[in-house]
């Protein structure tokens, strides 16, 4: 199917449990367009170097600010002279997220979740360790907005906002062939991480569920994700993801029969040890579900001895 779309895969290895990211490229009238970039490290550089050799890369589209998509964009721009496109929200979030002010406050925010102080600051240091993997920041030439249209390969795609996994995440949809580049919004085997990171949208899970219902109206037939293999029938997978989150919300309400911290709830949900990197995602996802419930009036939170406690 990708061949018929005149689109090429560029799959880049990642040093995490989620061990790859799918980037894409296609030739257009004025040169090549690349979607997403990988981390800024030697693995990514060595992957892209022979691919872009002797090619005129005109445009780089970044679907969202997370390091595996955004990290190499600045260096790739330096190597190619390409223009960079992404949403203004995520451009600003990237700079804020790895700024010193955010890193300095992160350990304290994790501690307020009930995480032991040593672990909380290990998690903050893990976040800080990504700075060299996302710099230099790209110069963004154009801010993407919903409804923008452009050719990628053989067909024209429309930009669709898909908040949740990040506030400014975008997907690309071709109505003619019913093809959706779902980025990290809809994945075939895992559910996208929906986290609150102490800044930005306070209720990302609500935005995510709203955007999934919006995407159901497309009835997209063929889905090309940023992790995993392409698959058919977007709506079937959307329903599975929505049901997963409702099941998790129900489990959290059962846990909240007794007042608990984010850390306690997180451990009861996931029930296994995490690396500092993985714990950041788990805690962020736990907070997003709790804040969803608070917003709906199904639980409350209060500060007790410097720790946020949630209860029903």
Describe the structure.
This protein is α/β, with parallel strands linked by helices and 312 residues long. The chain is 42% helix and 23% strand. It has twelve helices and 15 strands. The strands form three sheets. A six-stranded mixed sheet has the order 1-2-3-4-5-6. Strand 3, helix 2 (42-52) and strand 4 form a beta-alpha-beta unit. It is globular and about 60 Å long.
List the helices and strands and how they pair.
Elements lengths: L1 H4 L2 E6 L6 E9 L2 E5 L6 H11 L4 E5 L5 H4 L2 H8 L2 E4 L1 H10 L2 H13 L4 H12 L2 H4 L5 E4 L5 E4 L2 E7 L8 E5 L4 E5 L20 H13 L5 E4 L5 E2 L1 H22 L4 E2 H9 L5 H20 L4 E5 L2 E5 L1
Parallel strand pairs: 3-4, 4-5, 5-6, 10-11
Antiparallel strand pairs: 1-2, 2-3, 7-8, 8-9, 9-10, 11-12, 13-15, 14-15
Helix pairs in contact: 6-7, 7-12, 9-10, 11-12
Average of the residue pLDDT scores: 96
Oligomeric state? single chain
General form: globular
Terminal CA distance reads: 49 Å
Unreliable residue stretches: none
The helix tally amounts to 12
Could you tell me the strand content as a percent range? 15-25%
Order of secondary-structure elements:
HEEEHEHHEHHHHEEEEEHEEHEHHEE
Structural class call reads alpha/beta
Largest sheet: 6 strands, mixed
Quickly describe the structure:
This protein has 312 residues and is of the alpha/beta class. The chain has helices spanning 2-5, 42-52, 67-70, 73-80, 88-97, 100-112, 117-128, 131-134, 204-216, 234-255, 262-270, 276-295, and strands spanning 8-13, 20-28, 31-35, 57-61, 83-86, 140-143, 149-152, 155-161, 170-174, 179-183, 222-225, 231-232, 260-261, 300-304, 307-311.
